[in-house]
Amino acid sequence: MSLCTKALAFLVLVILAAGSWLALRQPEKPVVLPATERPAVTTIPASPPGETTTPEPERHLGPLGDAPDWAALDAYQGTISRKDFEQLLDTIFTTGSGWRSYFSINDQEAVIATDASDSGLRFHLRFAAPDHTSPAPRHWRTARELPPAPPERPLEGLRIAIDPGHIGGEWAKMEERWFAIGEAPPVCEGDLTLAVARLLKPELESLGATVTLVRNDSKPLTPLRPETLMAAAEAATDPGGDVRKTAERLFYRTAEIRARAEYVNRTLKPDLVLCLHFNAEAWGHASNPSLTDHSHCHLLLNGGYTDEELALADQRYEMLRKLLQRTHAEEAAVGADVAASFYSSTGLPPYTYNPLSRNARMVDGNPYLWARNLLANRLYDCPVIFMEPYVMNSRHDYNRIQAGDYEGTREIDGKLLPSIFREYAGAVANGLKTHYAKVRQGEPLLPEH
């Protein structure tokens, strides 16, 4: 072969390789082939100890979702029994039967679809023997795993991250968690939650906890902005829809929560995350909102995945991580005491989900505790207590919000009441104090699932 011919052949190889590399770098849309043209089903075998499996990249993902690292689940091989696995799936983590399209279970293993149910790609999770489970790998510690603590400092050594929900400030209107009545100061949920967080932090620290605020101002953690998300928004918007609105929602509902999860999981690595929110009922136009006489309270734990959510590979994977880390037992135990404290402090009735909605399920028969799949409680890599007390546009709660923060009590609607912000912070602190004090002094807890 002449030198010229060799050079030409080398150039062709370089062009082909570059084309392949660029193809791999481009996002792809799922292509569904007719059944007769599909490749033969290929199954990913269970990994021997010390080895990992690497399924093909995922394409059935939620907004801004990352392709799951299925090989990371090899760390959980042999750590859960079939009985516990199925019980958690059936009673906590799902609301329908659609999960059976992606999970095939026998006495030895769960075989899990890693993409569309007909793609042929599977992850095999080996079960432990019924009486021989091993600890699940994780960075967070349960209350039982903490050493004894002084009675006056029951949170000694506990790492807590407080996540004040939403952003507030100049972003409040975009977030659609803002309304104003006449000349009165507007109600901005992101500002309300930050006010509670700043009161709650020193209360928990006085009980011995190490506490970090996930945000301490009204600035987003994500570097992304709606302008940088227009391409993703265009792909996610139905024909005729408002692409700009979609980009805004991707910014504050998705990119911001994912940035907070990155900070929590990689930097803070807490034992517990407290997500602070205020609830609301439909208020119509933000400049002329309707008020309601209703107020209520409930806490959300991770679970209650719908069939539609489990059809997305990243949510199926993230649910498995929560299930296999056993976050639910800790969330239920902590949540029960925090919910009891809220009732004791506020007298608020529980909020009840419409049973026809099928996006939540009650936990342990407690009307204040509901399992629901939210981006924050799914992505944060530890137990999460997601709080939804009060109703911002209830007449009574609105009057308390307008009163602002203050020490002691004031007369509001004919009753002497503390600041709504201090009442909120105190209810959370007292619930955690009660829970960790009894656990670290050896009192029995709810049975672990």
From TrEMBL:
Keywords: Hydrolase. The keyword Nucleus does not apply. SUPFAM superfamilies: Zn-dependent exopeptidases. InterPro entries: MurNAc-LAA_cat. GO terms for molecular function: N-acetylmuramoyl-L-alanine amidase activity. Its EC number is 3.5.1.28. Residues 40-65, 134-156 are annotated as: Disordered. It is an enzyme of class 3 (hydrolase). Residues 160-285 form the MurNAc-LAA domain. GO terms for biological process: peptidoglycan catabolic process. Gene3D superfamilies: Zn-dependent exopeptidases. It comes from the Bacteria. The keyword Hydrolase applies. This is N-acetylmuramoyl-L-alanine amidase. It comes from Luteolibacter ambystomatis.
